[in-house]
Records
---
Amino acid sequence: MYICVGCRKEMLCDKNGVGANFGHGHVYASDRYKCPICGMMILATNIKAYYDPNLSFQDEYLNMDGGGNENRRQLGEEILTSKARRGGSRQGKAWT
Ligand SMILES: [Zn+2]
């Protein structure tokens, strides 16, 4: 369970299949959670990254190299990179 500290409410899963993209194929698969009161969003990632150089396994990707303010803007304005699911496995091989 994830709890919004400010609102003291449980955050709810807002979207599955969001990749936290650190570049060069270095991606953490995650689910996105959102506070139902204030709208704060977080990504709950897997512990291990996987290799996804073409950004083809997740529905959306959040680029992690843009800095905090830019990432917040991306979430608010839905500039997330959307990728249609191309079938097959959603999980690439482990990042090594
Ligand atoms: Zn909140």
---
Amino acid sequence: MLDSTATLQVQEVLDTLNDAFASGDVDRITELFATDCYWRDLVAMTWNLKTVEGRDAVADMLTSQMGEVAPGGFAIQDGEIPVEEDGVTTAWITFETKTGRGWGLMRLRDGRIWTLLTSLRELKGFEETRGKRRPMGAQHGADRHRTTWKEAREAEAAELGYETQPYVVVVGGGQGGIALGARLRQLGVPAIVLDKHDRPGDQWRNRYKSLCLHDPVWYDHLPYIKFPDNWPVFAPKDKIGDWLEMYTKVMELNYWTRSEVQSCSYDEASGEWTVRVNRDGEEVVLKPKQLVLATGMSGKPNMPTFPGMEDFRGEIQHSSQHAGPDAWTGKKVVVIGSNNSAHDICAALWEHEADVTMVQRSSTHIVRSDSLMEIGLGALYSEEALENGVTTEKADMIFASLPYRIMHEFQIPLYDQMRERDAEFYAGLERAGFQLDWGDDGSGLFMKYLRRGSGYYIDVGACQLIIDGEIKLAHGQVDHFEEDAVVLADGTRLPADLVVLATGFGSMNGWAADLISQEVADKVGKVWGLGSETTKDPGPWEGEQRNMWKPTQQENLWFHGGNLHQSRHYSLYLALQLKARLEGLDTPVYGLQEVHHLH
Ligand SMILES: Cc1cc2nc3c(=O)[nH]c(=O)nc-3n(C[C@H](O)[C@H](O)[C@H](O)COP(=O)(O)OP(=O)(O)OC[C@H]3O[C@@H](n4cnc5c(N)ncnc54)[C@H](O)[C@@H]3O)c2cc1C
């Protein structure tokens, strides 16, 4: 199809959409959609992160929201031309609502809307001070009572949390808390980001010393400041730590270090949280309206207990406590688990000439880093993608526009390609006795990440050590510990000086239990997962990640985090939801998620 035909087709749909919105004709809008349609909305229509599936669900959402949200002005984005490929016409679009301006991506099949992504980008009247609106900085003229930028910053830092209260408290200042803090700062939302560490970035510095990011630089940018173009593809953890520290400073975050939150409670009558903080030995009580837990989805260790552990004469560490291999040269180390951390830790120990055994408890998805980069990410996040005009922002939107219900269908062929390309490598692993999987439906790494946040290793070298028998492999569950060994269910005895439990991390509502109450944690339910009814992602289907970046069953409690890509992209929607509430805008939430599963 000619581009002009695609444009005409899209324009016709948008014109009808605008007419029907103007006259409030839900049926007419619904008819524009294909029967198997998906409308993913990021805050623009639903004040929620919500995917509605099928025409009836579209109609239900519109009936509920249309009047109050008043969408309209749908147009092909300036400078973008709709394209047709394999029977699907794709168009970048813009639109408005009563309160905001939006950006979206629409796909038509047979002239009807198949997938629609709508996302809120800014609130009318509360636009960010950037670009043409950037602050002046200097105050020209003469003023005897002039306050410099530095003095103003210092005064703000001294007062906030003491004489004035923040509207938002963000607990946890890793990449998630920092990215959200930057967005809130830009939007003029008074906020404090609290972290128990000494310095921003310590979350990364304190991890095992060989760690480099597993995702490439194009996927990892923070909002507002992109990594420079000499930044390494896979940044070493301490370099990321320094970047986060620099970012926190230049983005002018009110970031309290050495500030551990002891407890939080919510008073429904006043709609206010009481957050007790130990700030470097001093108790400070904060009274925000909104509380965000950005305490890390890989932050709450799963620490299993086994009989005999107390008699073990060696050392036992969770992977998050394992500093690195230096002390273990010539020693016997058993690493329980076979995902990312386990592989990285085993490889570093091998490099330091420790005698390492990995215990594989269940099958693991392995994908080679270069194959993942080329086949899995390349089209969206790479130098080539940038050359093709796919900016980070566009890539984030394209990625977000594939509804979770059908995302696996797009992923499976990519992983089939990887399997074929690296057949020899996988055969080697199997010969070494390594149990492989590709996810329950063959959809690979991203789906595993979204569904369960675990179960994979991006190979950067450890697999060859397993293939060569340099990292020994054992299988099965741990039965018990003896004074000098770990014993597996089949009786295999693995002598050890050190046991590393690379046993993963728990659901983030565990943080709510620790910091607020078990009652609130249960009220909110499981955090993360789509409800796909695949391993470790029990149903029912939610269609979005449970409880992340969106309203929860606990009023004014939010969860934020995830990988750098998610921290970057979804912090925008969370920040806009918070800003809207600060400004007292109507935020009618559609489809507040129900609670499923307590952990
Ligand atoms: C070994 C490993 C490798 C990873 N590699 C990558 C990668 O390559 N790319 C990627 O994008 N992601 C990666 N991840 C996953 C994830 O992105 C990181 O875990 C990331 O650090 C999550 O950021 P976050 O801000 O959500 O949480 P965290 O970085 O865990 O930060 C949470 C913060 O909350 C603080 N906190 C917790 N409780 C309190 C309290 N009560 N009071 C005050 N502060 C508190 C903690 O001190 C911590 O600083 C990796 C994870 C692990 C474990």
